[in-house]
Batch of 2 targets.
Target 1
Amino acid sequence: LHQTVPFWFISRPVSVSQSSKRCAVIGGSGFLGRHLVEKLQDRGYSVSVFDIRQSYELPGVTFHQGDLCDEQALLSALKDVSLVFHCASPAPASNDRALFERVNIQGTKTVIEACIQAGVQKLVLTSSASVVFEGTDIKNGREDLPYAKKPIDYYTQTKIQQEKLVLEACDKQKGFLTVAIRPHGIFGPRDPQLVPIMVDAARRGKMKFIIGDGTNLVDFTFVENVVHGHILAAECLRPDSPICGKPYHITNDEPIRFWDFMSEMLVGLGYAAPRFHLPYGLVYSLALLLWLLTWILRPLLSFKPTFTPMRVALAGTHHYYSCERAKQDLGYRPVVSLKEGIARTVQSYPHLRHGA
Ligand SMILES: NC(=O)C1=CN([C@@H]2O[C@H](COP(=O)(O)OP(=O)(O)OC[C@H]3O[C@@H](n4cnc5c(N)ncnc54)[C@H](O)[C@@H]3O)[C@@H](O)[C@H]2O)C=CC1
Ligand SMILES: CC(C)CCC[C@@H](C)[C@H]1CC[C@H]2C3=C(CC[C@]12C)[C@@]1(C)CCC(=O)C[C@@H]1CC3
């Protein structure tokens, strides 16, 4: 694979000292976090996980179970650690405003304070490309797009605050360097949302319809490319590099029609591809109405609609992003193509196949 290496990257010392290879992954029990932990170990890092739950065991990886809002718990996990990846967040589907504010805003402030107190030198945040998305088309969006003034949900609203906090904390004088990775539509083996939600909808006969004309292009990013972007950012983060305090889009660099991606996944798993078109405006209005009804009736019934306004907006608009800045500054190139990523994902879900 041909990679252009940035000039300041070449000046990096060849051997990375042992202490700079001690890292912690906050949210390391999650989908992205676990893939990141596995790759970091492959690359010779000594890895600790900090997470509110422990979802697996891996020889050589130390687990610290705790809430990232608890500074004392974080401090003991960050002892002797020089590099921290923060990829913890409540799931977007929870739509729990208080929880998002507590974990993504207050918790991230606590993470920053704990890192500084523990002498951590680098903090890599997993942000989201959605921080600039307002529910209307984004084509080849670059990092200089303004943050969404009207974010599509509480999750996105708090991801914006979180990213600002981390990037503003970057301080070369104090030797505390930060960077944010903005992935989009992460998919791959063990993903708990995209494929399971899609299959659940298909099993309930709800994936027969294409919202809109079906031509809207979207980024779906294979998890190993997202991991690659995080590790490149960590390894490039030095006081003399241009990446300090900046956000970077990491995508597969292969925008695809939303409904072609869904169809490939569904057909690969043995389900029929969606065929019938429904007008975007109609579906969005119905989703909004249903969402309002479930909100008003929430003391009486707990019903979670499949087609939320957020999902309809994501399914019916263009939202794809340029990763040119990551190519330029990090030497990033996707390491797994979309075709290969889809094939590996489909293979990894035998229990979600039609008839299983
Ligand atoms: N999945 C996607 O398509 C995208 C995800 N992201 C971001 O990537 C990151 C990782 O997402 P996923 O791996 O998909 O989610 P995930 O839900 O699989 O992992 C998140 C992890 O954070 C942990 N966590 C939540 N609250 C915590 C707390 N208070 N203290 C300690 N740990 C806590 C959870 O236990 C979980 O293991 C998140 O920051 C998310 O916002 C960004 C763009 C797209
Ligand atoms: C029911 C169908 C219309 C949709 C099924 C698939 C969706 C569950 C996913 C399609 C795009 C995904 C996506 C995210 C979550 C899962 C989808 C809505 C995110 C919101 C996850 C967190 C982010 O930061 C942005 C993602 C955008 C794409």
Note: The first strand starts at residue 22 and ends at 26.
Target 2
Amino acid sequence: MPAAFELSKVSVVRPGKLLLDDVSWTVEEGDRWVVLGPNGAGKTTLLQIVGAAMHPTTGEAHILGEQLGRTALAELRTRIGHTSTKVADRIPPGESVRDTVLSAAHAVTGRWNEEYDPEDVKRAEQTMGEWGVSGLARRTFGTLSEGERKRVLIARALMTDPELLLLDEPGAGLDLGAREDLLASLDVLSESEDAPVLVMVSHHVEEIPAGFTHVLLMRAGRVVAQGPIESTLTAENLSMTFGQRIQLDREGGRYAARRAAYGRRADRSHDTSDTTGGNA
Ligand SMILES: Nc1ncnc2c1ncn2[C@@H]1O[C@H](COP(=O)(O)OP(=O)(O)OP(=O)(O)O)[C@@H](O)[C@H]1O
């Protein structure tokens, strides 16, 4: 089976700044990845490459079988669901929730005079139902709470039944209950057989849904470590990523991290015996 996407030695350069530096990353069908790193590490830039929203300056990116630079980006983007604050900012505040989701069928933000099939309407109702926002259908996007917005954006991203779903900080700005509700929904999605390949960007290990399989850790535009979550998400790798000694705990398939106290073992796993990582 071909990879869902493959980046080979990708760099992104802007005047006076190296945003991504020699990033190689392969994601296979069925994978659920989380991308972790501090502010400014390049996570959003990386997702923009994978989401066919930006070309690499150097290196090659093959996304869903198409090579960036040799394919129409707009067409490729219809196969990818992408949620981010940039997408949220493009949605007119007066747009109804229903039209916010529905208009994804034409890859537009702000419904105008496009025509929608009954299948489009049915699909919009289905994804709104699955993400618990049917009751908000007539509300305007601008009046929603942060948690409600996040769910509406995911329903919108899933509207076109994408092969790849990119979630840029879906947990940011959510209260504890809303975050846990979102993680439970993402966990259900990640377990479903026809789920798209999932890639989620986060700052916090606490936001990793239990069903996620792989992690990529970034710092200053470079990959610090990547691979299966069990062996790669270690205190040692997190400490390198965030530039300070981190203690990592794991319980019930969920992670928690904080600055390590001196003299304490940095990795502590309560439900597995094989969590790796160095002593701090
Ligand atoms: N067009 C640009 N020109 C110059 N620098 C840029 C440009 N776009 C982004 N950057 C810088 O590149 C770095 C990486 O940005 P990016 O948004 O990818 O990081 P991030 O890991 O998503 O950060 P955060 O966690 O804070 O959202 C940042 O320092 C940012 O200021």
Note: Confidence is low (pLDDT under 50) at residues 271-280.
